[in-house]
Write a structure and sequence with these properties.
The complex is a heterodimer of chains A (332) and B (331).
Chain A lengths: L1 H27 L14 H14 L5 H13 L12 H36 L4 H15 L2 H15 L19 H9 L1 H39 L2 H8 L4 H13 L1 H6 L4 H6 L2 H6 L5 H10 L3 H29 L7
Helix pairs in contact in A: 1-15, 4-8, 5-8, 6-8, 7-8, 8-10
Chain B lengths: L3 H14 L4 H11 L3 H18 L1 H18 L1 H4 L40 H37 L1 H16 L2 H13 L3 H27 L3 H8 L4 H37 L11 H8 L9 H27 L2 H5 L1
Helix pairs in contact in B: 2-3, 3-13, 4-6, 4-13, 6-7, 6-9, 6-11, 6-13, 7-9, 8-9, 9-11, 10-11, 11-12, 11-13, 12-13
The chains are: A mainly alpha (332), B mainly alpha (331).
């Protein structure tokens, strides 16, 4: 186990190195290069372009640029955005909103998907199971951006029950700021109520695909488990169906789901680009998207590296939990 | 999905009622003369019979056929050509379902704020969605087969190098990178988008292909072919590939669904296909600001067709998996 983790970590370092080269080349070989945002016909624009080239050192050889950049990253400095803010501070500032959205939608998703999957497995081939299967295919095939807009139209424009976007009402103090915490202490009902109202639609949109996938997964896993010998043994020695299903079968059927939690890590800190854009959520996903569109090279490079790191960490976490929760798994 | 026991009995009773049915007739002929071609025909008839049993997959295939026809004959379906004289009306038209709507059938789904009928958006958009989805999936599979077959068949350092490269590609965050590259490279060109999809998504399929080649390269038919001096290339593409084709067809079908959604998503974000080109994603992108004014049909119908198309491909893939018996062969 120890050597297995060590070997995976070493592997991850090599993949990370490869990824950093790929990202670096992608961003440097694009037309206009990293300073494309400043290019323009006017003299002022040209002056800014020169300034950017000096600041990022784009005129130096690629290998020098790459080593400088990596040295900077290894010191925990992800560079400075075109507007002058440090990428790390922007990341820290946007992270709470993204964590809130992604975390709550993930929790809700599991709370719905797991019982659905178990129930469908226990009633295999029933009417419920068939409807469930059909709906899970619909959820899987759903263009979430379209669903988001239609929900905004229906619930915000027509019925006016949920707000159309943003993390909270304009009258509230800035989310996760000092004033916000003060108000939260004084009037938690008001603050949280406002937050939940804003969370409802984006949460639902983010959840749909996940519920469809995870409940199918849970169903398959449950079906596999309840056909095993130890379940029959438990039933045969006289335990009630309920106890067997929830104490014996459910806990084992949960294993593949638990190991998948790690794979969710990149989304948790990377946010959801499309959903955040539709709902003007103001998290990392939306910020990353605007940075791409505005050619904000240092931000794109820094956040890409972070998200790659998250993917690797997530995969590693998934493999380790897999080995940890299921002693039957052995790695040579 | 459907109770297999019920289906089984339904199938049997159908045969009893109609003794001239395909399978039983084929079985009778098989008994009478033992020509090989009939057995082969029976194999594909079996696949077709299993596929037909999956009603949703059948419905998906028919839907996709109709959508493809709509795309191919878009100039006939759509009352206007996007490139020609289209200005029938000045502003948005809500869907007209009241009789006699046949005098105004082109506005069955309404029109956008410039007076383009939604029927035009849907018909021409079907061309883009289906072409991008199918061609991207084809390109992905071609790359995956070349890489996966080479890695799996030769093994050794070739395999190690190719799999490490695919590791890196698998770790790339798909959507962010797609948006980044599409923003830089595509510039509204759907061929570039197909190329991007192919480059970004071959590793998963390549691993699938590789796993089959690892199995088949040590089997007797491969050794026999090698012993009589068949070249490696011929063994890879003519001897092993047909055996590994079923799971690849299923994977390719399911990939199409993903590519169609991804293409619409980047169009929607404004980094994929752009105006004045027509696609369902462009329609969704253009309409999102007007839905607040109550012009819901401009958003609703392109998205609905997107959903139907993707759903059809998912059902089709599922049906093919059952019909081609992929799961049992994979283990």
């Amino acid at each position: 186990m120890g050597t297995y983790i060590l070997r995976r970590c070493i592997q991850a370092v090599f993949i990370m190195f490869g990824l950093s080269v790929v990202f670096f080349l992608i961003l440097h070989l694009t037309p206009g290069g990293p300073c494309a945002a400043f290019d323009g016909p006017t003299q002022a624009a040209q002056a800014k372009l020169q300034q950017c080239i000096r600041r990022l050192g784009v005129d130096r050889p690629l290998i020098v640029q790459y080593t400088n950049l990596m040295g900077q990253y290894l010191h925990g400095n992800l560079g400075t955005s075109n507007s002058g803010d440090s990428v790390v501070s922007i990341f820290a500032q946007k992270l709470p909103a993204t964590l809130l959205l992604m975390g709550s939608s993930y929790l809700l998703q599991q709370m719905i998907a797991l019982p659905l999957g178990v129930f469908a497995a226990l009633k295999q081939y029933s009417f419920f199971d068939q409807v469930f299967t059909f709906l899970s295919y619909v959820g899987l095939s759903m263009p979430t951006f379209w669903l988001g807009i239609m929900l905004i139209f229906f619930f915000s424009v027509q019925l006016n029950v949920f707000p159309a976007g943003h993390i909270q009402s304009a009258t509230m103090p800035l989310f996760w700021s000092h004033d916000w915490f003060v108000l939260l202490g004084q009037n938690p009902g008001l603050v949280l109520g406002d937050l939940i109202k804003h969370l409802a639609l984006p949460c639902f949109v983010l959840m749909i695909t996940g519920v469809a996938v995870d409940s199918r997964y849970m169903r398959a896993s449950m079906l596999e488990v309840i056909r095993q010998d130890y379940i029959r043994t438990a039933r045969a020695k006289g335990l009630s169906r309920r106890v067997v299903i929830f104490k014996h079968a459910f806990r084992n059927a949960l294993l593949p789901i638990i190991t998948n939690i790690g794979l969710y890590l990149p989304a948790l800190i990377g946010g959801a680009i499309i959903t955040e854009t539709i709902f003007s959520w103001g998290g990392l996903g939306y910020y990353f998207f605007t940075a791409i569109v505005n050619n904000d090279y240092p931000v794109v490079q820094g956040l890409s590296m972070l998200s790659a790191l998250a993917v690797l960490a997530g995969n590693l976490l998934a493999d380790i939990t897999y080995a940890w929760v299921d002693p039957r798994i052995r790695y040579d | 999905m459907i109770d297999p026991t019920q289906e089984e009995t339904a199938g049997l009773s159908a045969e009893v009622v109609t003794p001239v049915g395909g399978p039983s007739e084929a079985a009778q002929r098989m008994l009478q003369d033992t020509e090989v071609p009939i057995v082969q025909l029976g194999q594909w008839a079996l696949v077709w019979r299993r596929f037909k049993r999956h009603h949703l997959a059948l419905a998906g295939a028919i839907t996709l056929g109709l959508l493809a026809l709509m795309g191919i004959f878009a100039p006939l379906v759509s009352p206007e050509s996007f490139f020609g004289n289209w200005n029938f009306v000045a502003g948005p038209v809500p869907p007209r379902w009241t009789l006699p709507w046949n005098t105004d059938w082109r506005y069955i789904m309404g029109a956008d704020i410039q007076g383009h009928s939604l029927l035009m958006w849907i018909a021409y958009g079907a061309r883009v969605s289906l072409s991008v989805g199918l061609l991207s999936s084809l390109l992905t599979m071609v790359i995956a087969i070349i890489v996966g077959a080479t890695a799996g068949y030769y093994g050794g350092w070739v395999d190690a190098v190719m799999m490490r490269i695919s590791d890196i590609f698998l770790t790339l965050p798909f959507l962010p990178l797609l948006i980044l590259l599409a923003d830089y490279a595509a510039g509204g060109n759907w061929v570039t988008i197909v190329f991007l999809f192919g480059v970004l998504s071959w590793p998963g399929a390549a691993r699938l292909v590789r796993s089959y080649y690892l199995t088949f390269r040590v089997q007797e038919f491969t050794e026999a072919a090698r012993a009589v001096g068949v070249s490696d290339t011929r063994i890879i593409y003519r001897h092993i590939l047909p055996n590994a084709l079923s799971p690849l067809i299923v994977a390719a079908t399911l990939n199409v669904a993903g590519f169609i959604i991804a293409e619409a998503a980047i169009d929607f974000l404004g980094v994929g296909i752009r105006q004045p080109a027509v696609s369902w994603g462009v329609a969704l992108s253009n309409s999102q600001n007007y839905i607040l004014q109550g012009i819901w049909w401009w958003t609703f119908f392109p998205g609905l067709f997107l959903l139907i198309t993707v759903l059809s491909f998912n059902f089709l893939g599922d049906g093919l998996r059952d019909a081609l018996d992929v799961r049992s062969r994979a283990h």
